[in-house]
Every structure is written in structure tokens, then in C-alpha cells.
Amino acid sequence: xxxxxxxxxxxxxxxxxxxxxxxxxxxxxxxxxxxxxxxxxxxxxxxxxxxxxxxxxxxxxxxxxxxxxxxxxxxxxxxxxxxxxxxxxxxxxxxxxxxxxxxxxxxxxxxxxxxxxxxxxxxxxxxxxxxxxxxxxxxxxxxxxxxxxxxxxxxxxxxxxxxxxxxxxxxxxxxxxxxxxxxxxxxxxxxxxxxxxxxxxxxxxxxxxxxxxxxxxxxxxxxxxxxxxxxxxxxxxxxxxxxxxxxxxxxxxxxxxxxxxxx
Length: 263
Known about the structure:
By secondary structure, the protein is an alpha/beta fold. It has helices at 56-60, 89-92, 129-139, 163-166, 175-183, 205-213, and strands at residues 16-21, 24-30, 49-54, 73-77, 85-87, 110-117, 126-127, 149-153, 172-173, 188-191, 216-219, 231-239, 247-256. The chain has 2 domains: 46-79, no CATH class; 85-260, Putative cyclase (Glucose Oxidase, domain 1), CATH 3.50.30.50.
């Protein structure tokens, strides 16, 4: 099909690609969920609204006689915690208004990563330190990357199209596991779930630990279980500079050298 006025080839989204970065050929996997009015949203948070603020035809009404075909603009309203997002430290520590999401350091956007599978843990229960250690052993991970990123897969990602299940049926890290993970020096903890905490535990032990240690975490992460190696890959995660934001939508990629994947 030929699109009128377009000389570019047809584009379609793919969550995997081969890229060249600083002269190195890398495999890349998108770990980001989409943003739309149809996505699941954490209970009590604002849902996404999108609308045609200005259409191509409407924009041309003010232009007069011109060959330019006009421009389109979408309106967008959402919570700073919708879809794949990073929590600011201020989100869970009211004493640190200086650590809103715009303060997230550049060097933490580009880190070494490791991921573990805890998808056998029952929904609405805790992921214990013992289970974290077993998951690391199963993945062949001897240590978490200091200055790096830990990703943990609960399996709730499979319920993305069932909003009620996605936002209520997942496990979360308990206090002991949360503190131990942060003791290893990671600078970000990522999960496929809508929260790092067990939804049945209103003490929010993981959020509390991150607030005490001043470490960000990131929720609603896609494709964790598709990263083909459990360590030795890079994580690129970039929040928007929302001044005063308690969180931000993020775009996240896992990257690795093609020959390094062992399955």
C-alpha cells in the first residue's frame, strides 16, 4: 500500500532490534509497556486520557493557501505512576523533597543488569530473602551488580490483558529481602508487577526500605523473562525530567552483545 505524501518505508513496532552503539553491535530488547487509555492502572491512581487536541484539518484552517498538509497534536492526561515508570525517592520518603524524579542521576540511567525469576511465589505473599538467594543460584548469579540494576520477574506480566488480576495478584519483596538487595549496592530495582510490594501488606516494606536507603525502583516492566542471559547485560532506563515529580514514565532497554547470550 502506498501512503499519499510519504516517501518513507512502512514502519511497524518491534520490541527487539540489532543496534550499533559507539561502534559496537548490540542486541536490544524493549522492556517498556505502552501508554494508552486501555492499560491497567494501580488502584486509586489516575487513568490515562488521550484525545485529538488538534487535527491536521483543523490546523490548516489558520494557514491560508499553502501546500503544507497541516499538523496534528494529541492531548494527554495521566498520573506520573502510569504504565512503566520509575518511582522517585520522594514518593516514599516525605522528608526528601529534593529527591523528586528530576534529580535521578544520569549515571544511573546506564547500568549493568541482572535478573531473577521468582514467578513460583504465590500472589499476595512475600518474596523472602531465601527465595531471592535460590533464584540467584538458579540463574548462576553469585553477586548482584554494585552500582547496577536488579530485575525480578513475578510472572504477573502474563496477566497484562486482565486488568483486575494484573493490579491485584502478584507477590512483593519482604523487608529482609529488600534491605539485603539494597545492601549489595544496586541503584535500581525493577519488577513486572504494578508494585514492588505485596498488595496484601499495607506496611509497604519494600517502599519503606527504598525510602530509608534513598534508592529508586521501577514498576510495570515488560519482557524481563525474555532477556536471554541473567547477567552480563546492560540496562538503559530514562525518566523524564518532571520537576517535582513523584515518578515518571520511563523507556527501558536491555542490551547485550549478540554472541554473549547462552539461553
